[in-house]
Amino acid sequence: MNASAFDAVIAGAGLSGLSLAAQLATNGWHNRSVLVVDDAAATPSATLWASWCDGPGLLDAAVSRRYRQVQIHAAGTSRVVPLGRYHYQVVRRSDLRHVVMGLVRTCPRFVLADGHVEDIRDGGGAAEVVIDRQTIRAAWVFDSVRAGPSSVDVDARLAFTGYDIRCGHPVFDADTPVLFDFRTPQTGAARFVYVLPQDSHHALVEVTQFVPRHTVVPTEAARRDALDAYLGAALHCQTYEILRTESAVLPLRAHPGRRGNGRVLAIGARGGLVKASTGYGYLRIQRDCEAIAISLARHGHPFDLPRPRLRHQLLDAVLLDVLDRDPAQLELAFSRLFSANPAERVLRFLDEGTGVADELRLIRSFPPLPYLRAFATRAVHRQR
Ligand SMILES: Cc1cc2nc3c(=O)[nH]c(=O)nc-3n(C[C@H](O)[C@H](O)[C@H](O)COP(=O)(O)OP(=O)(O)OC[C@H]3O[C@@H](n4cnc5c(N)ncnc54)[C@H](O)[C@@H]3O)c2cc1C
User: Fold this and answer.
1) Fewest CB within 10 A of the end CB: N or C in the chain?
2) How many CB atoms lie under 10 A from the CB of residue 244?
3) pLDDT of residue 2
4) Distance, CA of 185 to chain centre
5) Which of 295, 253, 297, 242 is nearest to 277 (CA)?
6) Ligand 1, atom 22, residue with closest C-alpha
7) How far apart are CA 221 and CA 176, in angstroms?
8) Residues 6+ apart with CB under 8 A from 158
9) Is the dihedral of CA 218, 220, 221, 225 positive or negative?
10) Where does residue 264 fall: left (phi above 0), alpha (psi -120 to 50 degrees), or beta otherwise?
11) d(CA 367, ligand 1 centre) in Å
12) DSSP character for 134?
């Protein structure tokens, strides 16, 4: 790295860093100087991102797979749910990088570098990023690398462990991901299994558990045991080869704090873009990066971003509080949401794109008592 000053430094070339680079390249920053720095030795959080989607996006060329339906096993019933205008899609990290590299290649002053970000300082008129002991100045820094919220101020955590497996015989429906399968022992937890098939023999199978704030996160070994048991009992898959394992504990916050207002803006998971009630972040990160790039081009600063709606944050918080008291409500909630509503309405709701009328219809699917109690407790806390 020779230059010591950039219009922007993007710290981290994961989902948010790459998406922001692509948006800057196509939204008026084509000739500006942008450094995207990533430490190749750092462990990236995900190797692929699945999400539902109902429209075109800048990075669609990175989508490797689209599904028109999903399967749900909950409350003793199994159903295949057509997604209507939505599809469920998969973007692999390697494909995302390839597509973004293609976009930024045409930008003469974009630099992608390998380096470890050691510090980020907000210095009033400019910011400073320390990369491998070298200090780089930048008008704006977009930070996806520093530690997220500490465990004391999260509403819950999402703990998951997944195997990318190949089975000896056909086990999976290649056209139908399993969004959630509650046929796994709940043992007082809100736990389900998720299956993303590549073909009939090959899939990512993941056990996912909402862990309330005051509860100990189950060990990775316990999550693996649950996964092994599920593969045998629910899928009758006795022999399989594990090609890769992924495991993580995601902090969930219904009201993410400030993302910055000086010269440094937190992006991606660090910026609170992972939705607290689902653990999905792909689409929110895409929209956020687009809004940042448009704000920079229009106003010269990145802060003209859509404000998160309070009612959506409150609904997330209420769901997590309900699970805190009674984890079994998760299965009931998902089961009723999808049995009483078209999938499009549910997905739009989880995407925070619904209006109040639709939200009231959806909320009517839930058993009222636990939600009213959690709502009242939150409301009282807000008054204090
Ligand atoms: C295992 C896992 C699976 C997930 N799957 C999904 C999914 O399927 N769908 C979905 O919508 N959401 C998913 N999420 C949630 C969320 O979308 C992802 O965490 C997403 O990758 C967040 O993007 P990010 O840019 O904040 O972080 P990342 O994509 O992790 O990017 C951060 C980057 O910073 C780099 N880095 C870290 N420290 C340094 C340093 N000090 N210096 C330089 N570089 C550094 C890393 O190498 C990495 O490339 C998943 C999360 C996890 C943990």
Assistant:
1) C
2) 10
3) 46
4) 25
5) 253
6) 269
7) 28
8) 208, 209, 210, 211, 249, 250, 252, 279
9) positive
10) beta
11) 35
12) E
Pocket test for ligand 1, best of 36, 43, 45 (most atoms within 8 A of CB): 45
| DSSP tag of 176 | -
Distance CA(129)–CA(136), nearest Å, equals 5
Pairing state between β 87-92 and 48-53: antiparallel
- In whole angstroms, give the CA distance from residue 381 to residue 363: 22
Distance CA 151, CA 298 (A): 37
pTM of the model: 0.94
Q: Determine the residue type at 77.
A: T
Amino acid identity of residue 99, one-letter, is V
Q: How much distance in Å is there from the Cα of 44 to the middle of ligand 1?
A: 5
CA 344, 49, 93, 14 torsion-angle sign: positive
Quote the pLDDT of residue 365: 85
Pair of tokens at residue 305: 């971003």
Q: Using CA positions, which residue lies closest to atom 28 of ligand 1?
A: 14
Give me the long-range contacts of 351-359 (CB less than 8 A, separation at least 24): 351/52, 351/283, 352/275, 352/309, 352/312, 356/311, 359/311, 359/315
Q: DSSP 3-state assignment of 192?
A: strand
What tokens appear for 25 in the block?
A: 């390249």
Q: Side chain identity at 193, as an amino acid letter?
A: V
In angstroms, rounded to a whole number, what is the distance separating the alpha carbons of residues 148 and 81? 35
Rounded to a whole number, what is the distance in angstroms from the first to the last CA of the chain? 51
Q: Cβ(45) to ligand 1 under 6 A? A: yes
